[in-house]
Amino acid sequence: MSLLRLLLFFFFFLAAGGGGNGGIGKCEAYGLTKEGTAITFDRRSLMVDGRRDLFFSGSIHYPRSPPHMWPDLIARAKEGGLNVIESYVFWNGHEPEMGVYNFEGRYDMIKFFKLVQEHEMFAMVRIGPFVQAEWNHGGLPYWLREVPDIIFRTNNEPFKKHMQKFVTMIVNKLKDAKLFASQGGPIILAQIENEYQHLEAAFKENGTTYIHWAAKMASDLNIGVPWIMCKQTKAPGEVIPTCNGRHCGDTWPGPTDKNKPLLWTENWTAQYRVFGDPPSQRSAEDIAFAVARFYSVGGTMVNYYMYHGGTNFGRTGASFVMPRYYDEAPLDEFGLYKEPKWGHLRDLHHALRLCKKAILWGNPSNQPLGKLYEARLFEIPEQKICVAFLSNHNTKEDGTVTFRGQQYFVPRRSVSILADCKTVVFSTQHVNSQHNQRTFHFSDQTVQGNVWEMYTESDKVPTYKFTNIRTQKPLEAYNLTKDKTDYVWYTTSFKLEAEDLPFRKDIWPVLEVSSHGHAMVAFVNGKYVGAGHGTKINKAFTMEKPIEVRTGINHVSILSTTLGMQDSGVYLEHRQAGIDGVTIQGLNTGTLDLTSNGWGHLVGLEGERRNAHTEKGGDGVQWVPAVFDRPLTWYRRRFDIPTGDDPVVIDMSPMGKGVLYVNGEGLGRYWSSYKHALGRPSQYLYHVPRCFLKPTGNVMTIFEEEGGGQPDGIMILTVKRDNICSFISEKNPAHVKSWERKDSHLKSVADADLKPQAVLSCPEKKLIQQVVFASYGNPLGICGNYTVGNCHAPKAKEIVEKACVGKKSCVLQVSHEVYGADLNCPGSTGTLAVQAKCSKRQKAADQ
Ligand SMILES: *[C@@H]1O[C@H](CO)[C@@H](O)[C@H](O)[C@H]1NC(C)=O
Ligand SMILES: *[C@@H]1O[C@H](CO)[C@@H](O)[C@H](O)[C@H]1NC(C)=O
Ligand SMILES: *[C@@H]1O[C@H](CO)[C@@H](O)[C@H](O)[C@H]1NC(C)=O
Ligand SMILES: CC(=O)N[C@H]1CO[C@H](CO)[C@@H](O)[C@@H]1O
């Protein structure tokens, strides 16, 4: 069957409603207008009212972006070819105190799933209620630790009681809002527990008893859609086990129970990052390879973790996890399209949908094509339907294979999708979608009114007599803070005689403090002596600092800080933080061990008790003109909202360590003084969602722990992805989406002549203003920095300008005939590289 006929067939198939194009746009298929939809499954796939479908899901966690951003994020996910949105449910956000609930603002779970429904998409709700998710305490509320005799996530009655109560409450809330597919809502899958298998082994028979209990407890809630468990090879009963990982198509054989489908719940689009981590990347090509591979071995649902990561606002990140979350996802932290990741995956989804009939109903088979080469086929011979996935598993070598009498070039580590077992409609290694470059722009608000006030705590460092909790030895920190603050003071006092002091003036005694984690700043006799910290891997650490002591009474005051609670592993309820040993070394009389010296504790900061970061509390605090370079100091300034509607960012690189607020909203912890191996802070740019801002008089408040920072160097920036690029070789296969771009799908297939096309498209409300670079030949470089190679057709720029300037988007042929072959380079690969600039300033032109 020719490709044209194949497409015709699909059109007919769609029109007839026999399977549907994922049903997007057709409410009936989702049961949105009906009483309910049955979600069933077998080995092959999930079924919606008995109809098989392919599912492309993306994780967007509602508390990680403000509700104002949700509609755009969901719409962009749908535009990227997704038909499912996944979110965890965040217990500690919803029940911060036992029996006190919060479903407002960023925690308005119902509103989130209703928006998914309004966008005519499916939803997956991963209740957990342990979720890990690099989220504080894995989502478990602090108060759960204080339940007598509790052991988390095992066959422990107190834990099971509270877990059941919460899960039931969430399920009832979702049912009341009619959000399950069985009620006509969008939710087609629900998850209980989360990556439990390794804990099950640790808890032995109690683990097994617990996971069976959890499966039964969930099933008994009668939600009318299947429950899943991820990374749980032997999920009990009807619960479907799913895979989490980077390469589930090659590392996971699927559920042992042969009537359950292959679903992939977490396919990392990058790697989450903690303070101290260098930047991480996962290329569009690598993700596409893993996903194409998964569908080629019979997978029918993948979930991108994350599709949009967002921000761990305030204190919501797990220990050491930085506020910016999965910025490398297809939609970046600000919700902007990260290209080519977003577009390449969209093209993949379109290609797989084109092959849906074969994937869902065809006979699967595989055919080795040599060492590390393979064809995976799905065929319906009587209907002449055939789809093939040609894979090359060599990591270093491109190759050519012969399949059904025809030769195919298969790049290293790639899958090529042959929609009719003949025509390549997608290759994971050939990116046809546009690229873009993210740029940050200085805004006038940085310098206007760059006047700082301060309110310092360093001149009132508490000593023992100002503390209210006293014990012989220092206490565990979480037990004191109850996760309401990162900060707790540890103080003690001791007396020295003249003969204790070193005789030589140039020899200083040393204060040695050991801590379970995570960081601290120390003072002796009110004077700052230094800071220390652990790492994500080694949370416990020891700090040693030279100190000045005096004859008579000396005071040690240590501010211990945590960076969230741990989110994984067994016995989470026993994890500790804070000071556990203090000595003074180098005295004439030897080492003075202060560990059992009698300790006073004070929870939180003075500024926190007075809400210095809020409008109201801030007004009740004595602010004075700022003096920089001071530890334990609150700083604040006012600023107006930057003009335009590009996202707003605060550059915290001049500061040390602390927390950042705007208008009372916590934007997260900053730690610019902690540099990763490449000498940069892991995060220094902080997203301020525009909905947190008012036109004038916004208040930025910082609490700086270590000092050394220069707040007047903090910049207010805006972020754009207005530099759009294309880099496509004439030899790339034509990806299916580029054909669909034109009005007439079928006509354009013929027009395109199966040559790839470059599609350049500006972000909303912007037009292509300028073609910065265009070359046809063998150009080099990356988006933002292309250079011409030794082959270059001079006409290229003019042709591209004519096609693109003044337009929202344009389509360019990638063919030497259009640009004129370069006679200097016969036989060289023709590559088109274009960089264009989008801008709002241009007045409206034709689309
Ligand atoms: C299982 O739980 C029981 C009761 O809580 C406890 O006594 C036993 O030690 C546990 N077994 C394991 C292997 O942890
Ligand atoms: C925390 O406090 C509880 C009592 O509230 C106590 O049982 C537990 O041992 C304490 N944990 C640590 C590590 O001190
Ligand atoms: C641009 O690319 C050239 C080589 O293609 C490289 O030498 C140069 O450093 C790059 N410039 C920037 C700003 O990345
Ligand atoms: C939770 C989990 O399985 N994480 C894995 C994700 O993939 C990376 C790299 O393949 C592993 O190192 C992680 O353990």
Automatic annotation (TrEMBL):
Pfam families: BetaGal_gal-bd, GHD, Glyco_hydro_35, SUEL_Lectin. Its EC number is 3.2.1.23. One of its GO terms (biological process) is plant-type cell wall modification. Keywords: Apoplast, Glycoprotein, Glycosidase, Hydrolase, Secreted, Signal. The keyword Hydrolase applies. It is found in: Secreted, Extracellular space, Apoplast. Residues 752-839 form the SUEL-type lectin domain. Gene3D superfamilies: 2.60.120.740, Galactose-binding domain-like, Glycosidases. Residues 1-19 form the signal peptide. It catalyses: Hydrolysis of terminal non-reducing beta-D-galactose residues in beta-D-galactosides. GO terms for cellular component: apoplast; plant-type cell wall; vacuole. GO terms for molecular function: beta-galactosidase activity; carbohydrate binding. The keyword Signal applies. Belongs to the glycosyl hydrolase 35 family. This is Beta-galactosidase. It comes from Brachypodium distachyon (Purple false brome).
